[in-house]
Each structure stands twice: as structure tokens, then as C-alpha cells.
What we know:
By secondary structure, the protein is mainly α. The chain has one domain. The chain has six helices and two strands.
Amino acid sequence: MSYLLQALTLLIQVAFSFAIGLFVIRVLAEACRAEFQNPLSQLIYRYTNPVVTPIRRWVPNWKRVNLAAVLVAWLLSTLSRGLQQGLLGGRLPAPLGLVVLGTADLIDFTLVFYVAMIFGWTLSSLFGGDRRHPAARLLGQLIEPLLRPWRGRLAFGGIDFSPTVVMLALLVARILVVGPLRALGYDMGG
Length: 190
């Protein structure tokens, strides 16, 4: 593969990951009922609303999950996969394979994103970060639903191992869920 294609693929991955990240954070923030007055929440809503609002007319929320934002993130993930496959492989996979690969990529992105958030939260607590900062408050509200069931149950010698256990569970889910989905997508894609 030429160096120009590698650079273009990297730029595609970064641009699409940033956009997908915005919509994933929006879905997670709404599902976790994160503080809306947080400046970061306001920023995310401001940049995602023009895309999500028209789609919400046809795709309603399911419980606390904004399905319109999930749909946009999935479409971006599928488009990113299609562009990368088209640039790297020279051809697109079959449409059904592309749909499955886009789904696998979105699930993988979300799981890795959660691992990164929990890891960042844990590091900031080790170094005494300011918990009142808008980013720290939003981060805490996003990861709390995953950590809450394990808090206190996995504490030994004054150290809470719940973040480690949750990160390990997310990485295992990545292997057991995303791996087979990707294999299925490649099989269906030809």
C-alpha cells in the first residue's frame, strides 16, 4: 500500500472517530442522565442537534436511548468502514457484510471508548485531579453506571479494584462479541 493511501486512511479514521465519538457521547450522556448544564454537554448537544433533530421525527427514543444518535453513529461507522475497505482493498464488501462490519466497528468503538474513559478516570483519581472540572464531572457521570454495581464489593486493603474488573470485562466483551461479528461480516462481505 502506498504511503499516500496510508496517510489518507489515517485521516479518514481520525475524522470519523471524532464524529462517531460525539454521537456516542451524546447517546451515553442521555442514557446516563448526565448534567445538561455542563459546558461539555452543551457543546456536544450544539454540534449533534442539527443532525439528530430531523431524524428524531422518524426514529423515536427507546426508553432513555436516543436511537436517532445511535443510527447516525452507526451510519458514520459503516461509511468509514466502506471508505477504508474501498481505499485499501480496492473494492467494497457486499452490502450485508458492510452492515455487519459497521455494527461491529461501532460496538468496538464504544467498548474501547469506555475502557479509555475508565482508565482516564482512574489515573485522574490517582493524581488528585479536580473533580469539579466539567470534563471530570461528565466523565464521572458516564462511567458511574458501569462502576456502581461493583463499588465497595471489590475493595481490598483500601484499594477499589472495580475499575480494573470493569475494564477487563469490557475487553473480554470486545473479544467475545466484536471478534465473531467481524468474522461474520468478512464472511458475508466476500
